[in-house]
Amino acid sequence: MAERQYTANDIHILQGLEGVRKRPAMYIGSTNSSGLHHLVWEVVDNAVDEALSGYGKNITVTLHKDGSCSVLDEGRGIPVGINKETGRPGVEIVFTELHAGGKFNSSVYKSAGGLHGVGASVTNALSEWCDVTVYQNGGAYHLRFENGGHLVTPLENLGASKKHGTLVRFKPDASIFSTVDFKYDTISSHLQESAFLMKGVRFIIYDERTNEKQEYFYQNGLVEYITNLNEEKNPIIDVFSFSDVDAVTNIETEIALQYCYEDYNETIYSYVNNVKTSDGGTHESGFRAGITRAVNDFAEAQGLLKGKKLEGSDIREGLTAIISLKVPEELLEFEGQTKGKLGTPAALPVVSNLIYNKFTYYLTENKENALRIIKKCVDSQQARIAARKAKDEARSSKKAKQEVILSDKLTPAQSKDYLKNELFIVEGDSAGGTAKKGRDRIHQAILPLRGKPLNTDSISLDKLLHNEEIATIINTVGAGFGQSFDIEDIKYGKIIIMTDADTDGAHIQTLLLTFFYHYMRTLITSGHIYIAVPPLYRIYKEEGKKIIQQYAWNDADLEKAKKVVGGGAKVTRYKGLGEMDAIQLKETTMDPKTRQLIQVDISDPFLVEKRVKILMGNDASLRRKWVEENVDFNQIDTFLKEAK
Predict the structure, then answer these.
(1) Residue ranges of the alpha helices (H) in 367-411?
(2) Residue 504 annotated in active site
């Protein structure tokens, strides 16, 4: 075969916004629901940057019936004057050119989240249409883009107006995204976070589809944020907060923190110029280093340490902290366009020194609270050392080498290459038996559940450990739980929850996820927890001795499958996993080559915390209110009738 030549004519230049449409994930992370909502964040970030600079006290997001979203701010308005370099209006450039905007000029924006200047243009590029109206200099100006950012209505003067600000309304391109359904809760949670971070600025969300409306406005900012997060916890101290501006770098830091009893996790949320840094960065590293040094130095000076110094994990157990930085444009470095991680080197010593000095002073001036905090940290240290000692003894003991399983239901995997192994937690003995027959014996283990697991949101540790199902899961995963959990000791690379596709199955999923969230959260944040997705339908027909069949996971798939199988196709609606034989369960739900899995993550920690509190907490009235507002009972009735 002749070798194909690679010539200069093979090099293609993507003009304007074509590159964004060609590789959208490079700019917004994905084309699923997360990427869809990133379009909203890009526009909201621009409105927030105006408010950060002191322009505007209200930001309104509206979800329209036609599937579009609009963001209205009260800022200065994107410039409508002609840019000398291009001869085009400034607002047109902002929405059509990557890396164009005022964020590169520190005299325009002292600090801003939209560092790369691509936000508005990316939203425009990935939309069916985008309408922009600017209120500026006593007038209203409008322009419109369609089909991925093509200008169809040049800038026009709509007449006089007393308003000031920018209104951006866009409709995501359904040919790019797997879903174009904006989630009210997701956007509402994001705006509430922004309101916590921006004292005195009002954030409003209105959903035309349901007539839901919510306003968020906080005067005490991060203190109210922490109080909201820890509402149902038992605090050791009141919220401690402080802020400061570094004289050398002009980095403004605001931190709030609180310790709680009976909390085995650390909860640290960080933000830079109001952008959530989900992957941390130099500011989080500085915080962890500073608070570790402060607690150790104080405890050592007071003679409270018996032996080794406390590790960082000991000190952060039960800690909830919010870190919010305002970084000047010339120092701002994010890793990636989605701005998930701060890379600014100067932020590390600034935050580290600040938390060290402030928290040392707090501990010195509040001795009783300091003793409570140190005791909590020492208890964590002792539990960690005891757990490690027990594991070491178990590994060296011949007797302990025999795996202890509290339930005789576990069918283990044969391989000792743990990260390649998968644990299927299966609803019911019937489905568990089928799964055992269809599994890959080398790498797949099966653990059937006896009924519904315990709700572990608000129970005592003693009750937790006396529950056979939970105790078996803890022992099977093999890495401890709570303060003794060690991700390095897990026996499975994937833990897969496999339940029926009905309301009972969803409830079991929720109960298990609640347990993992409270006692093995690192399993979730490290990407080890999955939900199996069994099909709803089998479509088949017999042709002699041959069976032609397809599977469908939803009604749209069902119609496609009917066409593939052809005339005379029969449809089986699965009521549960137990209705499948081993081969069917394997090829649809267990075989890595053909199955569908949903990886569980925590992309919005604040929303997760609120949802767990509502759905799994002790306040039944909150749960009832949420169900009444969010569950379509007509749809459930239809589902139940179809299942009979």
Answers:
(1) 367-396
(2) yes
